[in-house]
Here is the input.
Amino acid sequence: MPSSPPTGARFDEWVSEHVPVLYRVAYRLVGDAHDAEDVLQDTFRSAWASRDLYDRSRSERAWLLAILRRRVADHWRKHESREVHAGGDAPDPAARPEADPFHDELSTAMQRALGRLPAELRETLLLVVVGELTHQEAADLQGVPLGTVLSRVSRGRSRLREFLLEGPGDTMNGQTVPSRTVPTHTSGKDTRHG
Here is the structure.
């Protein structure tokens, strides 16, 4: 049963508390900083309009991510495209707390790798890893069994690892190296040739 809606002050606290995570999820799903900001604004606008439906038995973040997920779907319908941009604008540095000089480079590589994942793996992985939902919350949000979420997260991480190891076109002696020759562990042994 829905509980009393958050007041204006409490809602402002929600925005402050959840905007960094929601922004990262939105950015990873739409691939563009400005579009992510628009989706985030639409998300909070929708959350405010439907705040009387908030059920305190759900986590705030899960409820907000459910709304965000619908706003992302609206975004793709509006733009008649379902493909994530590979790259796009870098996220607003003020929206992230870290000051890592390699962050933009890593973010671009990660965005490209995420863009190569099938939509269901990408969304599930983002909800659990970036959105910090439990596996069960992600399953409930997506309307799939827990085992499906566990499988999607595992397969998504595995595929991301493969894509990131491939890099933007690894070469050896001027020849492009197929991804299957890139070692997948760091034991020190070169297992590519045998």
Q: What stands out?
A: The chain has one domain: 8-89+103-181. Confidence is low (pLDDT under 50) at residues 81-103, 169-194. The longest strand covers residues 171-172. The beta strands are 171-172, 175-176.
